[in-house]
Write a structure and sequence with these properties.
This protein is 33% helix and 24% strand. With 406 residues, it is an alpha/beta fold. 46% of the residues are buried.
């Protein structure tokens, strides 16, 4: 029997899908994450934007084309948001929400809608592992209630795994690099242990460790000191969303532009070569040209290594969805301008490292330096760690000369 687990959306969804695949294999299934012929389909959906929900609905029809007789199980945020809509689709036999993934495998063979609040983390099997990189779920849910975001309503309130379970999973992983992930890992708490305390607890894990997305409030001297004491990589995806204080207030982001830039300076003081990447939403309701230019200028001031740019997408049920949306052509024009500024920042950051040496963990197609520069080199096998010399630009990163395998 073959099962296909198809995933849309965030890294946390990918981790949870890998856990479902691990559990299915324990039940005797052959698993794949690529859409194709299968005897069972599990669709792990996303609802962060309207487009993500649209793709989630379309995926059901794509599965049916491969095998119209195979049952389709739907889970994830879009399923939590529109359970009835998914259950009515031909071929779908079972729907669980984002908070019910931990029960999904126990429901195999049943039919119906199983969307109900969860208490705690809803433990899943350890994710299917690779020897190169593994994602380790440490937290779920969110308490921030940004005015544009549905996730707190779909994934529930913030909750964290115990540090003992996290350490055990990290030590058992064969991967040479582990990424700590969750909806809001900045809010990690296990008793008195916060995120910085968790990093101190993981300091002797032999794998390279990266943080998933963090908030400005997480960047403390305590966190940076904990990172310096262990095998933690100097790459920070520091969530921003806007460079304008007016828009940040309207988004309920709870920090100012000045506080965000102060966090960037703290990072650079601790890790001078650190990469700071971010997300920026363009065209939030009420965004003026002056507000938009604040987002342009903060890209230059923060020295970002990469910026992910998104047009505002109103989500029914959020505060922001009740406000007048900006015209689509204006949002598109601003997106293009911001992307150009982001490309300049990325080029500036990458060019700093041409001629320098670094350590690179190679994957199937290229690899990554500690500060998450994409590197391409001939002769490096997947899973190998090399000392390299970075020699110039290549595709979306840098090309390198192999010096010594580590």
């Amino acid at each position: 029997m073959k099962a296909c687990v198809f995933t849309l959306g965030c890294k946390l969804n990918e981790v949870e899908s890998a856990s479902l695949m691990s559990g299915l294999e324990a039940l005797g299934y052959e698993t794949t994450e690529e859409l194709g012929p299968a005897d069972l389909y599990i669709l792990n959906t996303c609802a962060v934007t309207r487009e993500a929900e649209k793709k989630s609905r379309q995926a059901v029809a794509r599965m049916r084309k491969f095998n119209p007789d195979a049952p389709v199980l739907v889970t994830g945020c879009a399923a939590e948001h529109h359970a009835e809509d998914f259950y009515k689709r031909e071929g779908v036999v079972l729907v669980t929400g984002a908070q019910g993934k931990g029960k999904l495998l126990s429901l195999l063979g049943k039919e119906g809608i199983f969307v109900e609040p969860e208490c705690g983390m809803g433990e899943l099997p350890a994710p299917k592992q690779t020897k190169t990189r593994a994602y380790l779920r440490i937290q779920d849910g969110c308490n921030r209630f940004c005015s544009y975001c549905l996730i707190p309503y779909l994934r529930g309130r913030s909750r964290s795994r115990s540090k003992e379970k996290i350490l055990a999973e990290a030590l058992a992983s064969p991967a040479k690099e582990i990424v700590l992930t969750g909806v809001d890992i900045s809010d990690y708490h296990d008793g008195d242990t916060n995120l910085a305390g968790l990093l101190r607890y993981l300091k002797d894990v032999p794998a390279r460790i990266r943080l998933g997305s963090v908030e400005e409030s997480a960047v403390t001297d305590e966190l940076l000191s904990a990172m310096q004491a262990g095998n933690f990589m100097p790459h920070f995806h520091l969530s921003l969303q806007s460079g304008s204080n007016d828009i940040l207030r309207a988004m309920n982001r709870r920090y100012t532009r000045e506080e965000y830039l102060s966090a960037c300076r703290k990072i650079y003081a601790a890790f001078p070569d650190a990469a700071i990447s971010t997300d920026i939403i363009v065209g939030f309701p009420g965004e003026t040209e002056e507000n938009f230019l604040d987002s342009i200028s903060i890209i230059r001031e923060a020295g970002f290594s990469r910026v992910h740019v998104f047009p505002f997408s109103p989500r029914e049920g959020t505060v922001a969805a009740k406000k007048p949306d900006l015209p689509a052509p204006l949002k598109h024009e601003r997106v293009q301008r911001l992307i150009k500024e982001a490309q300049k920042a990325e080029e500036t950051y990458l060019s700093r490292f041409v001629g320098s040496e670094s350590e690179v963990l190679f994957e199937a197609d290229g690899g990554y330096t500690p500060n998450y520069l994409r590197v391409y080199a001939e002769g490096a096998k997947e899973g190998s760690l090399w000392r390299v010399r970075l020699t110039g630009r290549e595709k979306d990163g840098l090309k390198a000369q192999l010096l010594k395998e580590i």
